[in-house]
Amino acid sequence: MAKCPACDVGITAADGVQPGELIHCSECESELEVLSVEPFELVLAPKIEEDWGE
Ligand SMILES: [Zn+2]
User: Fold this and answer.
1) What's the gap in Å between 43 CA and the centre of ligand 1?
2) What are the C-alpha distances in Å from 43 to residues 18, 35, 46, 53?
3) What letter does residue 45 receive in the DSSP assignment?
4) How far is the CA of 7 from the centre of ligand 1 (A)?
5) Where are the alpha helices (H) located in the chain, listed in sequence order?
6) pTM to 2 decimals?
């Protein structure tokens, strides 16, 4: 089990989850990136800017 980096709630890896996948914390709804599955580690997903501002 990993902890949400934002609110510290425990999150269990879903079946078939892959590193790099984005999930949402059920508690605070933060977008989290799966860093690794064994052990299960999560980081806050970087905010992706839709406008790259050329
Ligand atoms: Zn959370």
Assistant:
1) 11
2) 14, 7, 9, 26
3) P
4) 4
5) none
6) 0.81
